[in-house]
């Protein structure tokens, strides 16, 4: 892995679905070795931006730079060795074994006729034990709980051994305990292994708790980017999410905590 | 693959799940190989006259009487081997399509490849016959017509799907539409065409391997073996395609290119086998399902097992029609359809239940 390559920079990037600009001329530098969280209301373009960073969407204009290289010019496997991505709702056959899934993470490291190498085996072991699914290796995916399944998927992304890891709403379908469990795992990967993490999160308080850099998005653009303390103000949250709230200091984690109060532009009116 | 399984099983007493899967796959493959050889022998032995095993061995080693040599070498073996090749190739095509579309119902006939090839042949017969119903060109051009028809069908399906060609479901839907369109044109051509050609075309469409000669076997083998090798190489790249599109791409699979390549391989395998064996139906659906039941999920082993199952099914079907309906030559495709159609319905009903 070329560590020098790993600085990630989004340069006036636009992504379009037909005529609709889902990401509109965004520029953003993803800090190396930090956790960046993209947050914003539904349809603000955060997931699209994340996928465009991994070139799963073609850039309409602008580009994404990995070090000096435009990822638009990289080969598919080359990108997959630099940037891993966990999809929003990934799916795999129910009868696939956990270890089989994790092994798929080695795909970008294998040449056409090259057999399974020691490096591959070691990466798979590290990923499985790092995510605590080592004891589940022979289990079929269909027999796992939601939390276990999510860990197995994260293990697959880790086995890819990329410097940059993108996760698209990784805690969406998990209960509270597993949400914390999953994000603690991600933040440990960041702290202990120095991986650059880019997360899309819906829950503003989770975002504030785990982000080094918090990015607020709205209508395909970036409204503001900064530390959670800089961004989590009552005015900012009102203007981005359209909700009145009170922001207090989380007494445990030294991070701001948002208490939502009233929707300033209600979408569901109570009749009568 | 076998070597790796052996290595893994030596490495310690407690075998992991994947290693156990592999060991099992190897065992099943060996058993399937033996079954295939037994069916080859049985198909050579049974027929209008019974040729005992020791006489077959004698003929194969260069001995035997003249009539036995004729029956075994000229009448039976070419037919058996063509059935094995065509059945195997169609099964591999079905296996590839099911994997790449992540859909159990995919098969060459569903994608319009089989009917496209059949249309090619019927147009060939209709256009190039003179008034006395004799062909004005050599019958040797018939396979080319089938390949052209199959390629036209695949091209049409991709053209119709347009930018949505990356969606497996769209491809299947347009494939079914293309197959239906080809079938209706065939019907019109048959109803308006001369009787003799109609009978011949009908037999061919149903799929039959009788009246096969060594030239055809050789040509089929020469065309199919390189494609089968490519398919085996592609199988090594198949595993990520078990995942959803985003995940498959994020581990580095170039999905659009990969899909196009796999569809092309499947089209090539199908059209060559259809060109020589006719529109034998449902093998591309059935064989991969049986292989999967026996082997599990492994891509390379699954493909090899599909090929063997496909070969066994078509040889078996041909054997059944020879023994049951002799001396009438019923096309082997009739048997595969009798088994395959209810199974296809069962799959549809099961899918319905799962969705509803």
UniProtKB/TrEMBL annotation, chain A:
- Is Iron one of the keywords? yes
The protein's location, in the record's own words, is:
Cell membrane
Topology in membrane = Peripheral membrane protein
Asked if the record carries the keyword Cell division, the reply is: no
A GO molecular function assigned to this protein is:
ATP binding
Task: Name where it mostly resides.
Answer: membrane
Please give the GO cellular component terms listed in this UniProt entry: plasma membrane
Kindly state which keywords UniProt assigns to this record, in alphabetical order. ATP-binding, Cell membrane, Ion transport, Iron, Iron transport, Membrane, Nucleotide-binding, Transport
Give all residue intervals belonging to the ABC transporter domain: 8-244
Per the record, the GO terms for biological process are: iron ion transport
Record's Pfam families? ABC_tran
Tell me the domain of life.
Bacteria
Per the similarity annotation, which family is this? Belongs to the ABC transporter superfamily.
Q: What is this protein called?
A: ABC transporter related protein
The beginning of the lineage is: Bacteria, Pseudomonadati, Pseudomonadota, Alphaproteobacteria, Hyphomicrobiales
TrEMBL record, chain B:
How is it placed in the membrane, per its record?
Answer: Multi-pass membrane protein
Give me any GO biological process, just one.
Answer: siderophore-iron import into cell
Please give one Gene Ontology molecular function term for this protein. transmembrane transporter activity
Q: Where is this chain primarily localised? A: membrane
PANTHER family according to UniProt: FERRIC ENTEROBACTIN TRANSPORT SYSTEM PERMEASE PROTEIN, FERRIC ENTEROBACTIN TRANSPORT SYSTEM PERMEASE PROTEIN FEPG
Regions that span the bilayer: 25-46, 80-97, 109-128, 134-159, 171-196, 260-287, 299-324, 330-349
Q: Output the CDD domains linked to this UniProt entry.
A: TM_ABC_iron-siderophores_like
Name this polypeptide is given: Transport system permease protein
Record-linked SUPFAM superfamilies: ABC transporter involved in vitamin B12 uptake, BtuC
Q: Name one GO cellular component term.
A: plasma membrane
Q: Which InterPro entries match?
A: ABC_BtuC-like, ABC_transptr_permease_BtuC
Q: According to its UniProt record, which protein family does this protein belong to?
A: Belongs to the binding-protein-dependent transport system permease family. FecCD subfamily.
Compartments reported by the entry: Cell membrane
Q: What are the protein's UniProt keywords?
A: Cell membrane, Membrane, Transmembrane, Transmembrane helix, Transport
Species of the source: Chelativorans sp. (strain BNC1)
